[in-house]
From TrEMBL:
This is AAT family amino acid transporter. It comes from the Eukaryota. Keywords: Amino-acid transport, Membrane, Transmembrane, Transmembrane helix, Transport. Residues 39-200, 225-480 form the Amino acid permease/ SLC12A domain. GO terms for cellular component: membrane. GO terms for molecular function: amino acid transmembrane transporter activity. The chain crosses the membrane at residues 70-87, 107-127, 139-163, 175-199, 247-268, 302-324, 345-363, 369-390, 420-443, 455-474. Its main location: membrane. The keyword Oxidoreductase does not apply. It is a multi-pass membrane protein. PANTHER family: AMINO ACID PERMEASE (PTHR43341), GENERAL AMINO-ACID PERMEASE GAP1 (PTHR43341:SF1).
């Protein structure tokens, strides 16, 4: 096979009759569209109500202070909304399982699609291993008698078993675990309100408006899963915009309220925020223990343990779909594009499972743990690079639509982002700013000496991305896509009769009924 044949192209894709889904080039069978609106909304919501919110906020509060934490989470919340809006616009038209990876190769440069796709796959693969390591830490809340390797083995077996079942079982599992996490968050919010009102005996900490120039950003906000799951959504035009609006409101509710309560109940100078990486360092647990509420900390730990299984299953889902999509784009071996009768990309799942298992057990040794830390740190910067890619891709997509006079945004029920190009430019600026700050801190860390280990732990994702981009570009001699010749038909999905009927019924509703409809799944 020649280099040209390996590089992704869209020019030779056959046209299909109107109303059919146009598959990507080389596609022989497709993922099943079994995800409903409630699945997509709760999968995306559950992906972000992770151990990072319950536990890692303690570290953010300690090093960022109350004001820095509020600033950091608020900035990222705005960026998240912009990202979801841009993803929604483009995935409503091209709801491929490759999402922004496919779109980047289509509208910007195939090398960009390969680089961000490889880094995203690697990041999500290491997340599975990271969650396996967290399980052992969580179990120490109850007992230290279980060997680390045994904990990891049982955990991986559970995650792999979830994906051995048809996709609908994965969707229902994620739905139920997300419901459990949402319920736990509501319990914590009401408990915080009760403590602020005088329940128990918490030492209230006044919210001081002191700026330390150390804004802390939330970890592992997995917004990309919304775009990836669009490839298996039943009605992307109906499901994606609603998921975007619902998720943003709910995340703001959970994240911002949680941060406000944390800063009111736990001082950032609390010694309990240091000295452990377990749930004992969670500001929620610290507040509950200070208020002498004994039951909720154990319940919280149990929900986090369930959530860790959910997050690992989501990470494996995303990683396998990325690998399958890249295979269909001729960026990975052709065998990874194979999908069985139940809609599972089984070879991609097996490859991801093997790599995740290797990374998990590497983490058991001392030297391996340091290497794994470098690997897992890739996810910290890769997600910002992915957001940056989404903004650039959206700008180029708009240029292509305009250059070719395509009426896609003027069709009935077309979804078009308001205020364009402000959302894309704003997200672009935010991502560049965050990457710039991460680069500075990796070279000159706060309250620490500059070391190679510290640099790799903070910024390894960027050089990996650059090497992947340049390597693919040199190997296949790719060029930046001219908007006049960008492929606008392949993977495009016209509205189905069911979607048109649902949208028409929604359009006839009174305004207040439309608002109320968002309270349902």
């Amino acid at each position: 096979m020649t280099d040209t044949e390996k590089a992704p192209t869209y020019q030779d894709a056959p046209d299909k009759a109107e109303g059919e889904i146009l598959p990507a080039q080389g596609e022989t069978n497709e993922l099943h569209r079994t995800f409903k609106a409630r699945h997509i909304q709760m999968i995306c919501l559950g992906a972000n109500l992770s151990s990072g919110l319950f536990v890692s906020t303690g570290k953010a509060l300690k090093y960022g202070s109350a004001s820095g934490m509020l600033i950091g989470y608020s900035v990222v919340s705005i960026a998240v909304y912009l990202l979801m809006s841009l993803l929604t616009e483009i995935t409503c038209i091209w709801p491929t399982s490759g999402s922004f990876i496919d779109h980047a190769a289509r509208f910007v440069d195939p090398a960009l699609g390969f680089a961000i796709g490889f880094c995203e796959w690697f990041a999500y693969m290491t997340i599975v291993a990271s969650e396996a390591a967290i399980v052992r830490v969580l179990l120490t809340w109850w007992t230290t008698a279980i060997p680390t390797a045994a904990c990891m083995t049982v955990f991986l077996a559970i995650v792999f078993a979830i994906h051995a079942l048809p996709n609908r079982f994965f969707a229902e599992f994620e739905f139920l675990t997300a419901c459990a996490k949402v319920t736990m968050m509501l319990i914590l919010i009401f408990a915080c309100i009760a403590m602020l009102a005088g329940a128990g005996s918490p030492p209230l900490h006044p919210l001081r408006l002191e700026l330390h120039l150390r804004p802390r950003l939330p970890q592992r906000l997995q917004r990309q899963i919304m775009g990836i799951s669009a490839g298996e959504a039943r009605m992307p035009r109906w499901d994606m915009p609603r998921a975007c609006k619902n998720l943003f409101v709910r995340l703001i509710l959970f994240y911002e309220l949680s941060i406000v309560f944390i800063t009111l109940l736990v001082p950032y100078t609390s010694p309990d925020l240091l000295g452990t990486s377990s749930v004992a360092a969670s500001p929620f647990v610290i507040a509950l223990q200070n208020a002498h509420i004994p039951v909720l900390p154990s319940l919280l730990n149990a929900v986090i343990l369930l959530g860790v299984c959910s997050n690992a299953a989501e990470a494996m889902y995303v990683a396998s779909r990325i690998l399958t999509s890249m295979s269909k784009m001729n960026m990975m071996p052709a065998s990874f594009k194979k999908i069985d009768a139940r809609g599972r990309p089984y070879l991609s799942l097996i490859a991801t499972a093997i790599c995740s298992t290797i990374c998990t057990y590497i983490n058991c040794s001392g030297t391996g743990a340091q290497i794994f830390t470098w690997f897992s740190s890739i996810s910290s910067t890769v997600f910002f690079l992915a957001w940056l890619t989404v903004s650039i891709t959206n700008i180029q997509m708009r240029k292509a639509v305009k250059a070719q006079n395509d009426p896609v945004f003027h069709l009935p029920f077309a979804f078009r982002l308001r205020g364009y190009p402000f959302p894309a430019i704003a997200l672009l600026g935010m991502c560049l700013g965050c990457l710039g700050m991460m680069a500075y801190i990796s070279v000159k860390p706060i309250d620490a000496d500059t070391t190679a280990e510290g640099f790799f732990e903070m910024f390894l994702g960027v050089p990996v991305f650059v090497v992947a981009f340049l390597g693919y570009k040199v190997r296949f001699r790719t060029r930046v896509v001219d908007p006049k010749f960008a492929e606008l038909r392949t993977g495009r999905r016209p509205l189905t009769g069911e979607e048109v009927r649902v949208l028409e019924e929604y359009g006839r509703l009174a305004r207040w009924k439309r608002v109320v409809s968002y309270l349902r799944f």
